[in-house]
Amino acid sequence: MRRLAVLTVVAGSLLGLPASATARPVAAAPVHYVKTCSPGYVRAVVGGSVKCLHSGQFCSASSQSAYRRYGFVCKPGSDGRNRLSRR
User: Fold this and answer.
1) How many CB atoms lie within 10 A of CB 47?
2) Tens digit of each residue's pLDDT (9 = 90 or more) over 30-39
3) From the DSSP assignment, how many helices (H) and strands (E) are in the chain?
């Protein structure tokens, strides 16, 4: 076991790696996914999930306060269904 550790450090030094990088493997940092929105859309957190908001999209009247926070209002459209529009 010790021989393997020594060989790893020696091999790492030949490759130009520092001894700390070859002695123990380090767990990779977690990757966080960040949702990005297309131009013209607004990134928002509605109901605990990330959404991309745009005028004319269907909306829920129960999330009205979240929509207002991002500059939208949820009101009935010409077809009677709730849709987002800019304030």
Assistant:
1) 9
2) 666 778 999 9
3) 3, 4
